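In this section we walk through a basic example: taking a raw amino acid sequence and producing a predicted 3D structure, encoded as discrete structure tokens. The instruction is simple. Fold the sequence below.
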Amino acid sequence: ESILRVPGRLNDGQAAVVAEHTVIGESIVSRIDYLRPLGPVIRAAHERWDGHGYPDRLHGEDIPLTARIVFACDAYHAMTSDRPYRKALSHDAALTELCDNAGGQFDPAVVEAFVAARDAIERLFAAGARGGERIDRVLATVLFTDIVDSTVRAAAMGDAAWHELLERHHATVRALLKRYRGSEVDTAGDGFLATFDGAARAVECAVTIGRELAPLGLEVRAGCHTGEIEVGGAEVGGIAVHIGARVAALAGPGEVLVSSTVKDLVAGSGLAFDERGEHELKGVPGTWRLYAVRP
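The resulting token sequence is shown next.
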């Protein structure tokens, strides 16, 4: 602890003590079966591309790729955090430092990928800066909707007419979310993400959205799934949200597709379904049986 609080540059003895942490970390995880494969990554997480790192003086591609990525991420995090010996650097300054040391301290390809992902990284850090926000897990039904062939329609109609139609679409969806006590989470272009505390109301809302937008010449696809979501501020996340998005992506024009979880929860509601078979959902383990709401 005393070394971590040193306000200036470490002497050789202090630096040698700090350098032991990668070997100690490897030793700790080696005793835990499911963490053991991370041992080489932890051990090599401070090896330098030019061979002047520690503890084994590995060079270039002899360093595990995952360790090269961790090294760059760790350095960026350290540079953008307040330390006893200096104030945090700006994100731009930290990226410049990474670039200046590519080919020496860091793998140039890793730095290139890091810079290419800077927008996502800055969003991640912005979320971290709000770290005081509580993340709650709640049971909810998520609803995703989007307009079928919206790009084709927009090109055919022209910008002004399309924006006017899109405004009517948004107003209709928001009015129905209010009617069915849904909460709008996000609007991306022509799509909506909303959450409900009741599965039947989510499905009924989705069906009504499709019916009320039809006179505008709009076809909407929609998907619903119920599960635990993570709520932090105005944002939601978690595997249930990803499943809902994947279900919606498989829906056909004018179709409301739901997971088997939703179908089971709305039993007795009067809603009827047609089976759509089992599907693999990208990034989600297992297969999922899906159902289309019968008009």
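Looking at the output, two observations stand out. The beta strands are 136-147, 183-188, 191-196, 220-232, 235-237, 256-259, 273-280, 287-293. The longest strand covers residues 220-232. In the next section we compare this with other chains.
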